[in-house]
Amino acid sequence: MTHDRATRLTDAASLRVLAHPTRLRLLGLLRQHGPQTAAHLGDRVDEAPGTISYHLGKLASIALIEEAPGTGTDRRERWWRATSELTTWEPADALDDPATAAASTAMQRTTSSRSPPCPASGSPQPPAATAPCASPRPSWPSCAPSSRP
To answer: How far apart (Å, rounded) are the C-alpha atoms in residues 11 and 13?
Structure first.
């Protein structure tokens, strides 16, 4: 799979997967620091590798991450990498479907309540992301609602 600039989430299931704070943080770490194993990520977020593996599997199920072939020296290690630099969703698209609207709201709540604001735009930054962001649309390496022109 190629490394895309952005992935847009459009369904309730995908939004629910990413609305988990640990998964959001793991995705941010993979985007910021490149390919890593569950053990490496577990050390960074102070969680057991088994727990991290579970969350990585959930992120892989919606194609936000993928295995990074040829990265490790030990065939038993599974290295993971992000598939895009940015994840977006459009809250207005969820208005017609109650499940998607609820998942979009949960995602907005997760991204805004766990992070300090971006200095340039005032929008929330994901907890693991420290890369620069830009105004008016967030561009740090994690998630943000889309803005319509």
So the answer is: 6
pTM of the full structure: 0.71
Q: What are the CA-CA distances from residue 38 to residues 27, 47, 56, 127, 131 (Å)?
A: 12, 9, 8, 18, 22
Q: Is 14 exposed, middle or buried (0-12, 13-18, 19+ CB in 10 A)?
A: buried
| Domains along the sequence of the chain with CATH | 4-145 (1.10.10.10)
Please state the separation of Cα 68 from the chain's center in Å. 17
CA–CA gap between residue 40 and residue 46 (Å, rounded): 10
> What is the spatial distance between Cα 77 and Cα 124, in angstroms, rounded to a whole number?
34
Q: What is the tens place of the pLDDT at every residue in 20-76? A: 999 999 999 999 999 999 999 999 999 999 999 999 999 999 999 999 887 666 777
Angstrom distance (rounded) from CA 92 to CA 100: 10
